């Protein structure tokens, strides 16, 4: 996947380092990779006046612009030097697809090295949520997810994650979506990739997204959700960051036997280990944890599983939990589909009856392959 079409197996084994091209990799350094202090240092290194760091931050994080022509408060010579070394173009829009009469927009981005990734903007009457990617592709190999089927391409840099948000914030502000100008209010790490497998860059991105402008984009930490397959040690580490972000855990079944196949990383960290890490997160953050449950016909939708789910969640998390049922979205090559509505209703009823809050997530963008588990970034 990462090698050019002209590569042959023979050449590759003989000279792997020389011929491993075109090399894909992280982009050059960008303002959005850096903390406020690091930005000041980077500007000083270029021999520019310290206040230029704040001017650049203001353009990027407050005015949401990356166009040098907008930066008229910086003299031309300095501007090109600063932009060249701190604001390389990271993401180029390849195409945008719309659904729900324009209220859902999926954007396909190309990174500097040709890597493709997607993000999805969803506008609701009272809020606008952006679903962002933390990796191009995903290495977790969940069999019902199109991203997982494609494998991992590479991690995204902090700035590549942040730039998806900056760009959607500009779309909302400029009112180019139906409904006129608005504000990007929520961010969910539910696009491509496993955020906790790209831990350091994701945490830095959360800080850039949530720090007040012009240090960051100024979106409240409580409005950011990090969704994970359940990398238990990383969940605990995230709790210790003492941020107010919401944690979502993609559980999909309460028993290890089935979860070992639905979420292969369960072979490493079991349901118990994942739920006790989730409890630690809930206790440390004081926030309820969301449990994601993609409901799959005849696979994980049995009444006994609903009862067992409620029981185990109550044991581990008490009232500090909420279940989101996601009707399975179809993916290419998968034989599975969503449960019939009556089965879904009964599942939700049983979880609620078991003492755990449970609702069905509204699905957006199925017709443009923008719904949960459908992001494949096909150019
Ligand atoms: N890797 C992280 C982030 C991806 S979030 C995680 O797994 O949590 C995407 C969510 O959609 C996850 O809960 C995932 O399990 C779910 N999902 C994947 N494929 C799906 C599908 N075909 N239908 C419905 N939900 C799906």
TrEMBL record:
Superkingdom assignment? Bacteria
The UniProt entry's coiled-coil ranges are: none
Give me the comment on cofactor binding. Binds 1 [4Fe-4S] cluster. The cluster is coordinated with 3 cysteines and an exchangeable S-adenosyl-L-methionine.
**Residues in domain Radical SAM core?**
124-367
Provide the residue positions that the database annotates as binding S-adenosyl-L-methionine. Answer: 193-194, 227, 250-252, 329
Active-site residues, as the UniProt record annotates them: 118 (proton acceptor), 372 (s-methylcysteine intermediate)
Q: What is the enzyme's main class?
A: transferase
Name assigned to this protein? Probable dual-specificity RNA methyltransferase RlmN
Keyword terms: 4Fe-4S, Cytoplasm, Disulfide bond, Iron, Iron-sulfur, Metal-binding, Methyltransferase, rRNA processing, S-adenosyl-L-methionine, Transferase, tRNA processing
Please provide, in alphabetical order, the Gene Ontology terms of the cellular component aspect for this entry. Answer: cytoplasm
Annotated catalysed reactions: adenosine(37) in tRNA + 2 reduced [2Fe-2S]-[ferredoxin] + 2 S-adenosyl-L-methionine = 2-methyladenosine(37) in tRNA + 5'-deoxyadenosine + L-methionine + 2 oxidized [2Fe-2S]-[ferredoxin] + S-adenosyl-L-homocysteine; adenosine(2503) in 23S rRNA + 2 reduced [2Fe-2S]-[ferredoxin] + 2 S-adenosyl-L-methionine = 2-methyladenosine(2503) in 23S rRNA + 5'-deoxyadenosine + L-methionine + 2 oxidized [2Fe-2S]-[ferredoxin] + S-adenosyl-L-homocysteine
């Amino acid at each position: 996947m990462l090698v050019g079409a002209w590569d042959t197996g023979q050449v590759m084994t003989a000279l792997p380092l020389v011929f491993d091209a075109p090399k894909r990799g992280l982009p050059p350094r960008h303002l959005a990779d850096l903390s406020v202090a690091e930005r000041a240092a980077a500007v000083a290194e270029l021999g520019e006046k310290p206040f230029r760091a704040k001017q650049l931050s203001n353009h990027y994080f407050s005015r949401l612009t990356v166009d040098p022509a907008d930066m008229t408060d910086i003299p031309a010579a300095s501007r090109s030097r600063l932009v060249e070394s701190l604001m390389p173009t990271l993401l180029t829009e390849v195409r945008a697809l719309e659904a729900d009469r324009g209220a859902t927009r999926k954007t396909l981005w190309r990174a500097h090295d040709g890597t493709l990734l997607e993000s999805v903007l969803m506008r609701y009457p009272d809020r606008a949520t952006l679903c962002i990617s933390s990796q191009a592709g995903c290495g977790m190999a969940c069999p019902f997810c199109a991203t997982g089927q494609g494998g991992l391409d590479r991690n995204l840099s902090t700035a590549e994650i942040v730039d998806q948000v900056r760009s959607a914030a500009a779309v909302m502000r400029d009112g180019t979506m139906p409904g006129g100008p608005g504000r990007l209010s929520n961010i969910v790490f539910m696009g491509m990739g496993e955020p906790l497998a790209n831990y350091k860059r994701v945490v830095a991105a959360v800080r850039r997204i949530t720090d007040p402008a012009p240090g960051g984009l100024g979106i409240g930490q409580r409005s950011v959700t990090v969704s994970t397959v359940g990398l238990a040690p990383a969940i605990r580490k995230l709790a210790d960051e003492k941020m107010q972000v919401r944690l979502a855990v993609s559980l999909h079944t309460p028993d290890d036997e089935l979860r070992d196949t639905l979420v292969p990383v369960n072979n490493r960290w079991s349901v118990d280990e994942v739920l006790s890490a989730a409890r630690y997160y809930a206790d440390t953050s004081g926030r309820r944890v969301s449990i994601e449950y993609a409901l799959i016909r005849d696979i994980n939708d049995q009444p006994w599983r609903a009862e067992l789910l409620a029981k185990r969640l109550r044991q581990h998390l008490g009232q500090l939990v909420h279940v989101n049922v996601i009707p399975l979205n179809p993916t290419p090559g998968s034989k599975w589909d969503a449960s019939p509505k009556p089965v879904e209703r009964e599942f939700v009823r049983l979880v609620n009856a078991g003492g755990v809050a449970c609702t069905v997530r509204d699905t957006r963008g199925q017709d443009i392959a923008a719904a949960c588990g459908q992001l494949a970034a096909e150019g």
